[in-house]
Amino acid sequence: MTTESTSVPPAPGPWPSATHAGPGLAALAPQRGRPDRLALPPRRPAPPRFAAVPLIAADGLAVLLAVGLMPAPHSGVRLLLLVAGLVLALDAYAGLHRPGRLASVLDELPALASRAGVAWCVAAAAVAAYTPGRAIGPAALCAAYATHLAAVCVARGAVHARRRRIARAHPRSALVVGGPGAARRFAAVVGQHPEYGIRPVGIVTTRQDGGAPQHPTEAGLPVLTTTEEIHRAVIQTTVRDAVFLTEDPGLVRLFQHYGCTTWRVGGEGQDGPMSDHLWGYGCRRLVPLSERRGLAAKRALDLAVAGPALACSLPVLLLCALAVRLSDGPGVLFRQERVGQNGRLFTLLKFRTLRPADETESATRWSVADDRRMSAVGGFLRRTSLDELPQLWNVLRGDMSLVGPRPERPYFVAQFSRIHAGYAARHRMPVGLTGLAQVHGLRGDTSIEDRCRFDNHYIDHWSLWQDVRILLRTAAGLVRPAGS
Q1: Helices (H), 170-294
Q2: How far apart are CA 450 and CA 411, in angstroms?
């Protein structure tokens, strides 16, 4: 990214308020006394969620019935605990304890059947291996499996039927986000079908198009255009759901901050069972980053790789430190304040490649790649990215991850958040030593807009395997160093 295309204002501005909220929405007000964090309105505590408990109980009851009806000597507490543990773990990992709006046991049956089959086969193999005298024969195993499936279908069917009755009797207040015309039509359709358990109480719009209302209300629903109006609506009408016809990362994050369940309806790429719809509108839940499976594994990967890497690179670190000391004098490490996950500030470590004139230059100068004050040692460290090695300590400390959006200085975060839609949304994920943007060549003085797009794409589609792929591509790219 060139300095001219970045259009950075000459003086530092205030801390960015939050993710890009779109035109027409007021910026979120900063919180007093919290200058080191991205500002959001006061969080409304999310209500306790016990939706999974009846489904867990249904799965456990089915296992209990299947084991209890097995003939002696096959049945027993150990078998019950083994099968129940396997079934509950597999169902939980598959998301079968988080039902959709109109979950149906027929939609769930293939997933339930396959996981139950795996659990019973593993349990039967374990019994045959450790207590051969109580081995489960094929006939007994098939009978137990059939009993389990029948029981789980009946129990889960009862749970889903009860949820639908409650949803019809007590619909949840919802805000519809999108263009005024489309949001108005969707709200009218859903309002005529109470079986979905949604009661639209307002429309949130960020633009005024041809279908925009001319008055603050349309068909009895208020039209909200500022974050202050959204805040009041969420509190006063106890909004529990936000339905997005057009996805806006800033608003998604805002509603999730309030503890609302966020849904995306319509659009391309809607997957899931055919019954996951709202009167023909494809529907999927927008899962908050904190609820995604595998984030603990991401941290485990950081520790498993960064620790040994730091130990193995100790000779290289010592040589780099000695070279910097002999070439540029004392002060081997360069410490700089950067913005991490959720706007938290931390001190990033690097080998010093250039001694800045003062702290202001260090915090606000965009690039020093062509600075004549840089020594030959500093230039070599930057070209080979060896100056970044001390950041492995930041990874071990938890300031950073191995893979994620690259951290930037507060000054530039403030400016880029105003210029580029979604820039501040990069801070939903821990910042990283490398990232999807970097393996696509977006390092150093390259487009901030492109980096922002790659970073948010990485966050929205994160998986542990993608982290491994990016690490492998980064390692392969080190043979073609380009600096950072």
Answers
A1: 180-191, 227-236, 249-257
A2: 19
* CATH 3.40.50.720 domain range(s) in the chain: 171-289
Judge: domain 171-289, CATH 3.30.420.10. no
Peptide bond into 73 cis (omega under 30): yes
Query: Among 414, 453, 420, 415, which Cα is nearest to 435's?
Result: 453
The alpha carbon torsion through 227, 231, 233, 239 (nearest 10 deg) reads: 120
Q: Of all helices (H) and strands (E), which one includes residue 143?
A: helix 138-169
Overall size of the chain counted in residues: 484
In whole angstroms, give the CA distance from residue 387 to residue 185: 56
Angle at 408 between CA 387 and CA 334, to 5 degrees: 35
Q: What's this model's pTM, rounded to 2 decimal places?
A: 0.56
Q: How many CB atoms lie within 10 A of CB 171?
A: 19
- Number of CB atoms found within 10 A of residue 431's CB: 26
Contacts of 407 (CB under 8 A, 6+ apart): 338, 339, 340, 346, 348, 400, 431
* Of residues 176, 193, 167, the one with CA closest to residue 237: 176
Q: Which residue has the tokens 């300590």?
A: 393
Distance of CA 80 to the CA centre of its chain: 35
Question: 118: closest CA among 76, 92, 86?
Answer: 86
Q: Which helix (H) or strand (E) covers residue 37, if one does?
A: none
Q: What is the DSSP string of 379-414?
A: HHHHHHTGGGTTHHHHHHHTS-EEESPPP--HHHHH
Rounded CA separation 451/404 (Å) = 11
β-strand partners of 334: 350
Centre a 10 Å sphere on the Cβ of residue 341 and count the other Cβ atoms it contains.
21
Instruction: Quote the CA–CA distance of 397 and 394 in Å, as a whole number.
Output: 5
Distance, CA of 7 to CA of 419 (rounded, Å): 8
- 336 forms bridges with which residues in the sheet? 348
pLDDT 10s per residue in the chain (484 long)? 333 333 443 433 333 333 333 433 433 333 334 444 444 445 554 444 566 889 999 999 999 999 988 887 777 788 899 999 999 999 988 888 876 666 788 888 999 999 999 999 999 999 888 888 888 889 999 999 999 999 999 999 999 999 888 888 888 899 999 888 888 888 888 888 888 888 999 999 865 444 444 444 444 688 888 888 888 888 888 888 999 988 777 788 788 878 788 888 876 555 555 556 787 877 878 877 666 667 788 999 999 999 999 999 999 999 999 988 888 778 888 888 999 987 889 999 998 887 655 566 555 555 555 556 677 887 888 888 888 899 999 999 999 999 999 999 888 888 888 888 778 778 888 999 999 999 988 887 788 888 988 998 898 788 888 999 999 998 887 766 544 4
Angle at 299 between CA 297 and CA 301, to 5 degrees: 70
